[in-house]
Amino acid sequence: MHRYFSHQFLFLFVMIIGVSCGEPKVRLNSIREVQLRSGMCMGECPEIIVSIDSLLNYKFHGGRYALKQGYFTGKVSQGFWDTLNMRFEQIHYQQLRNFYQERSTDGPHWDVIIKYSNNTKYISASPSGLTDSVESVFNTYLRSYTLTKLARTNHSLNFDLFKGWVKTNDIKFPPPDNQ
To answer: pLDDT tens for residues 84-117?
Structure first.
């Protein structure tokens, strides 16, 4: 009888080891792309746009006050993409409001586009108007360009967030009327 249980235990042990050594499971992420833009403030807040998609493509544009200025591209690992998806799921990105009013008069403004399944989520927010957990996820995502190997490109990149972005250098004011 003792031998019978030891054989069953050995069989169970071998099965557990066999199952645990199998191929790693592929995570099914619903997010297809995330774009985040940080606009300027009255001080030296950097102008940054970061875009990462499910094909692991990384696009970056750094404007005034950004550590890297210009257009850059790169790749992220599947693990990074999976972690990013898990962090967005933890903050329940699908239930976030579209607008978060700021509590301060000076600070960066963030615009976010999250494309998932067949939907698109648009969020316009001041970091000070967000909960700490949401701000942390967005800030980590926004600062990821400092940890990602990027190559400068001479081509401008297409970001959905460019739509409606007014470049202040291009605005011309007429002279005052002499009355």
So the answer is: 999 999 999 999 998 887 656 677 888 999 999 9
Selected from 3.30.230.10, 3.40.50.920, 3.30.1560.10, 3.30.1370.10, the CATH number assigned to the domain covering 31-160 reads 3.30.1560.10
Which of the 8 DSSP states describes residue 122? E
CA-closest candidate to residue 127, choices 141, 116, 117, 115: 141
Question: What are the residue ranges of helices labelled H in the chain?
Answer: 2-20, 78-90, 132-142
CA distance 177 to 179: 6
Residue 36, classed as helix, strand or coil, is strand
Pull the structure tokens for residue 58.
Answer: 């990384």
E-only strand ranges, 13-168: 31-38, 48-53, 57-62, 70-75, 99-100, 110-116, 119-125, 150-153
Question: Is the entire prediction scored with pTM above 0.85?
Answer: no
Q: Domain limits of the chain? A: 31-160
